[in-house]
What does this fold into?
Amino acid sequence: MAASGEHIKALVRSHAAGDDAAFYAVAMQVAAKAARQGHGTLAGDLKQTIEAARRDPVADRVTAIARPRGDLAELVTAAFPDVTLRDLVGPPVLKDEIARVLHEQRQRHALMDHGFTPAHRLLLEGPPGTGKTMTAAVIAHELSLPLLTVRLDSLLSKFLGETASKLRTVFEAAANQRAVYLFDEFDALGGHRGGNDVGEARRILNSFLVFLEQASPESVVIAATNHRSILDHALFRRFDLVVNYQLPDAAQAALVMKARLGPLGKGLRWASVSLKEGGLSHAELVQAAEAAAKQVILRGEGRVTTTDLNVALSARRTAGSE
Ligand SMILES: Nc1ncnc2c1ncn2[C@@H]1O[C@H](COP(=O)(O)OP(=O)(O)OP(=O)(O)O)[C@@H](O)[C@H]1O
Ligand SMILES: [Mg+2]
It folds into this structure.
């Protein structure tokens, strides 16, 4: 064995500290030791691997993306979400659509080799709290990509008149850094809200569409909105996929609450939980589950009851209708 216990400890320590230089230095020592012990092939392989890794350091690339620099830093926030497709509750057709995007993205080189483009421009639309932002996080996680959320509000208010050039910055980043780019609250761009000059809004939207048309299929661009009606209909054609979100039915509502309650929800008689009345979004159901769970914990008990949940659900419904 070429690496001694000391070497392994030093490797782990430098890795944990994020100290690449130290990590590679120790790895080179291991290679040197292997060479001294007469393991020439192992030593050669190891040296080559280290040199290749030094030339293309993943850690550097990831940090660069996680901490966008220059103009991009003002325009996007980065995250590495860990929510999975299984966590997303929705009708099979919705899950299938997302699974298809993931599949096309994973196999994008095979598709592109044959002259086809993987789905990479998605429009998510539906009521608040039904999983649009969450879907962007799911896609980022499932593809092991960072999620870069474009701060549309700041983009529009801070740089009035410069929006098109700021959009260019984001789309250029999308061509250079494979990631999921989320334009959340997209209607801020597409709609003619507030005191926004209609001509200016139109111009911004047009530049967005031009950039979208040319967007690199290496990155996934997602626009999310809950105002379908105010979006221009011509817009929908520009996306590879328009995903529609709905409020959950009773079965989906139970799944959402069950997932949030975890062990606290064991053995619950879901048939007695008033989910059929509907009206609550996934996000509100999560909040109701949390409210009930906290009550139970504070009472010093280990299980929520159907009454706890019904009380929390009706409180949510009242809050929502105010
Ligand atoms: N389909 C879903 N399945 C499971 N949990 C969900 C779902 N939708 C929402 N949630 C829960 O609610 C939270 C908020 O949802 P999310 O931010 O994705 O809603 P949204 O559709 O983007 O709403 P908005 O239109 O207000 O931006 C999520 O982090 C998650 O905990
Ligand atoms: Mg959202």
